[in-house]
Amino acid sequence: MKNIIASFFFCLLVGFASLTLAAEPVIIGVYFPMTGPSAVYGQIGYKGLQLAQQERPTVLGRPVQLIMTDNKSDKVESANAVSRLIQKEKADVVIGGLTSSNTLSGGPVAEKARVPMLSPWATNPLVTQNKKYIFRACFIDPFQGYVAAKFAREELNAKTAAVLIDITQDYCVGIANFFMKNFKKMGGKIVFKAYYNTGDMDFTGQLAGMIAKKPDVIYCPGYFKELALIARQAREQGLKQPILSGDAAQADELIKIGGEAVEGLSFTTHFDEEGVVTQSGKKFVAAFRKAYPGIIPDSVSALSYDTYNILLDAIERAGSTDKERVTAELAKTRNFPGATGVMTMKNHDMIKPAVILTVKNGKFKWLATVNP
Amino acid sequence: MSLGTLYGLIAIGYTMVYGILRLINFAHADVMMMSTYFAFFGISMFALPWWVAAIIAMILTALLGIMIDQGAYRPLRRAPRISALITAIGVSFLLENLGLVIFGSRPRAFFRPEIFRPVWQFGEIHVLSLSVYTICITAVLLVFVYIIIYRTRIGMAMRAISRDMQTVPLMGVDLNRVIAFTFGMGSALAAAGGILWAMKYPQIEPLMGIFPGLKAFVAAVLGGIGNVFGAVIGGFILGVTEILLVAFFPEFSGYRDALAFLLLILVLLFRPTGIMGEVLPE
Fold first, then answer.
1. How far apart are the C-alpha atoms of A254 and A357, rounded to whole Å?
2. Which of A36, A171, A271, B135 has the lowest CB atom count within 10 Å?
């Protein structure tokens, strides 16, 4: 009898132990820029993540916990943030960073610690190159550069192009190089190339040099802050050429600050409300509109939303949070129906469609969707 | 060119405070940032006409400058110079982060008044009217500064303090009043520069002071720190060289900021006290 009672208690104990084990949260560490020059993206991206978490708060019967660490839009702080997430917070997986520069410095830390990391928005090819544990939920720069070059040649009939590059952003340098390569391959000519730094406000020097070259199109794949000022100063100096850009242009501030100067500015990006094709996309837009009235669901929030779901799917398929198995499953992501389109993981990068948007009457308007 | 005059306007504030206190007021650039927010809220919240908002912003900024002096630097008047310098850096961080908390990190679009909007065309060259007005406004402000420094009693006191801080109080001059006035004036000029800056580059954010502040500091040193007109000349040289380099050598445009500091190093090598700096007695 005594034995039976003892074993009963033992069973109870084991039961409790396994219960508490089961209830142990899956920890997802996030390093986004919540302050600093890229804070706009970090804030809205985090909204996307939180929305996804509200919809899917558990995985494998365990609650999911998001732990946010601010990387302050800084390369050094990004690396610090990742080691903090892994060592102190014991993150099972890491989401981030948003910009390519931040992810390029945060990635190696996770790689060394063998923790899988999925970036929603880092489009620079180097981010996942020769990495085993680093993945992304977006397409890479060559694709954006290719789409922009194709658009400039075929839709705008541009023969010559001028390129303005933010030299401090790996993203801008990469995407500009791929644009130039593809534009030349398609028979176009690059007549002018100049550089600037993040945080610059005066571009009259660069633009003055550009006027004499009379390009058909200006390609400036920079972030919206500088881009808005560039567009204004270009128009003030009498440059009337169409301006093309990359996905970092998409922010309300581009229109608020750029005003009339950004009318007709087009850019390649990941996602647009009007261009939504998938069921998941429609669900995301409706949920986002409801949760954050007045805020437009943009690329960063949609990609962050997708990132969360891709990760949870991988963990589900892996059946545990074992880092090696999650990594293997992430690599096997196939035909994932995300908010930003149907996507397939190939060499740690996503193959998926791109969207071209343009500014019309002070609003972002969907222009075309380009499939890979 | 108007970029150079803007550097100059901000540089005056650095140089005036340095001339009197031998203190590099690193918070100056952030005082400038605050002034643009004062003007921004004046226009957007109280619907003031832009020039009223600008004048109110200048007054508020002057008060802020005086408050910073009274709160942060005055207790350290007799402390070693390095303590005041570190305090200045502290105040700078305080203002920046205060701005981040209160105003948020998203940039806001600044207003450009109607009269500054037209673009004048001379053949191939397009000039924004604001750029021309900026130069005019700076010239007018400079005349004011000249009159105050060289034609008024308080200006005389300021010049005297920069010569000999110990003796002046013995002559019956209220040292703190003069220093407060200097801070007020320097900050008001920073506000003028800041508001013109924000009209030219119409986005404001809490960290916007760093870039113009650094360049204005270079301009002040370039022109000979402590010398008001040297600051303007330094700002002018810096602004013009930067733009010309980028316009004529676009492939080097990534090195623009490096050039600013190279210029500084070269000038300091050949004229250690700056272009218009006084020659130090041996």
1. 13
2. B135
Which residues of B touch chain A, with CB atoms under 8 Å apart?
3, 100, 105-109, 119, 121, 124, 126, 128, 197, 201-203, 207, 210-212, 242-248, 250-251, 253-254, 256-257
**What's the CA gap between A342 and A371, in Å, rounded?**
10
Average pLDDT, chain B: 83
How many Å apart are CA A55 and CA A175, to the nearest integer? 34
Is B243 in contact with A194 (CB distance < 8 Å)?
Answer: no
**β-pairing verdict for A117-119 and A134-136:** parallel
A294 close to B (CB below 8 A): no
Alpha carbon separation from B157 to A95, B78, B154, B176, B181 (Å, rounded) = 61, 19, 5, 11, 11
The reported pLDDT for the residue numbered A135 is: 94
Q: Spell out the domains of chain A, with CATH numbers in brackets.
A: 11-139+277-352 (3.40.50.2300), 142-269 (3.40.50.2300)
Is A71 within 8 Å of A84 (Cβ atoms)?
A: no
Cβ–Cβ below 8 Å for B246 and A257? no
Can you read off the two tokens belonging to residue A193?
């190339």
Instruction: Residue A204: list chain B partners with CB under 8 A.
Output: 3, 243, 247
Nearest Cα neighbor of A125 from A146, A110, A109 is A146
Nearest-CA distance B39 → chain A (Å): 17
CA separation for the pair A218, A158 (Å, rounded): 10
Q: What are the backbone angles phi and psi of residue A81, rounded to the nearest 5°? A: -60, -40
Q: Are A113 and A140 in contact (CB under 8 A)?
A: no
- Of all helices (H) and strands (E), which one includes residue B10? helix B2-21
- ipTM for the predicted complex: 0.75
Q: Which two tokens stand for residue A23?
A: 């209830």
Q: Encoding tokens for residue A254?
A: 């581009």
Segment of A256-265, B163-172, B247-256 carrying the highest mean pLDDT:
A256-265
> Helix, strand, coil proportions of chain B in percent (round to 5)?
75, 5, 20
Rounded mean pLDDT, B90-95: 91
Q: Tell me the C-alpha distance between B223 and B203, whole Å.
A: 29
Indicate the residue of A200, A228, A238 with minimum beta-carbon distance to B203: A228
Identify the band that residue A65 occupies on the pLDDT scale cut at 50, 70 and 90. very high
